[in-house]
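Students often ask why inverse folding is considered easier than folding. One informal answer: many sequences map to the same fold, so there is more than one right answer. In these notes we will look at a single instance of the problem. The structure comes first.
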């Protein structure tokens, strides 16, 4: 598989072979590298879209919470805003699933989301048919709880494209079951550092040190960062 960094990779491979580095490690790394690169664009699209949808959900819940904060002063404008928000949130139901984020097996989040949508629709019925029960207090509580839970799952630290692609291309996603989003991201990063970066970094350092070059570790990291952009 040809890449935009073929020249740099071939040059580094030749230099490592000349320095008697471990060929099995180099070949294994190149195989993982090509597989990761081949799948990267496709895998990143689904991951990025799920992340975007979670951010939309968080912003929608924030606005919905504000609308519900003063329910006594309801107006046609507020009513329209409310309908638009619950329509948007209902449309995103089940559209935020991803193995590295909130997946379909996360009963806690998914149940809360579905419950919130159901209550929001019931409250909309109440607004237009006063014979219905007013569940707005319960709805606001559900919105607040779901917003907090969504914010918890939108971690500040994000995975790189190569980390995402390496894990999903080479590892079993069963290892992620039962983990929080933060724990998933920590696991993905750790596996990437230990299994993908660590071995080839060691061989590149060995090559530079064999040739008595200074700054071996920095140069090794610079090469890896270049080809995994």
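Output (designed amino acids):
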């Amino acid at each position: 598989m040809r890449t935009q960094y073929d020249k740099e990779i071939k040059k580094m491979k030749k230099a490592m072979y000349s320095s008697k580095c471990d060929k099995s490690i180099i070949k294994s790394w190149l195989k993982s590298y090509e597989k990761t690169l081949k799948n990267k664009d496709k895998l990143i699209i689904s991951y990025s879209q799920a992340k975007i949808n979670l951010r939309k959900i968080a912003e929608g819940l924030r606005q919905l919470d504000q609308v519900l904060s003063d329910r006594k002063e309801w107006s046609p404008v507020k009513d329209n805003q409310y309908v638009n928000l619950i329509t948007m949130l209902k449309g995103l139901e089940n559209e935020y699933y991803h193995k590295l984020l909130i997946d379909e097996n996360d009963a806690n989040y998914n149940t809360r989301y579905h419950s919130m949508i159901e209550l929001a629709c019931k409250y909309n019925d109440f607004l237009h048919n006063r014979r219905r029960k007013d569940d707005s207090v319960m709805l606001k509580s559900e919105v607040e709880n779901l917003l907090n839970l969504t914010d918890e799952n939108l971690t500040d630290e994000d995975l790189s494209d190569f980390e995402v692609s390496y894990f999903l291309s080479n590892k079993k996603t069963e290892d992620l079951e039962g983990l929080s989003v933060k724990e998933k991201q920590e696991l993905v990063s750790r596996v990437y550092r230990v299994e993908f970066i660590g071995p080839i970094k060691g061989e590149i350092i060995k090559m530079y040190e064999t040739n008595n070059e200074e700054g071996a570790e920095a140069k090794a990291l610079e090469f890896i960062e270049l080809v995994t952009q």
